[in-house]
Amino acid sequence: MRMRYMAGVLTICALAGSVQAGAQESLVTYKSLAPGIALELAQAALMDCQKRGYQVAIAVVDRFGVVQVVLRDRFAGPHTPPTASGT
Question: Are 7 and 15 within 8 A, CB to CB?
Answer without folding.
Answer: no
